[in-house]
Amino acid sequence: MAQHTDEVAAVLTTERLRSHDIGxxxxxxxxxxxxxxxxxxxxxxxLVPAPSFLEAAEILASDSEAGPRAAG
Length: 72
Prior knowledge:
With 72 residues, the chain is α+β, with helices and mostly antiparallel strands. The chain has helices at residues 7-18, 53-66, and strands at residues 2-4, 25-28, 44-47. The protein has one domain.
């Protein structure tokens, strides 16, 4: 569904999808013992159930189109 190199961004994406009742899960393959964080060594994926894929893609696309939100 989504791929990040930053665990915080992956968790935020997961929580955004969960707020829409989509059962998202973080799958981290990041090696915490080494500081190397580039390429395939730091892949963090956000997974969703197959039936929710299109809805999740629309939610994430609408978030990226909206851009950063102004502080209130």
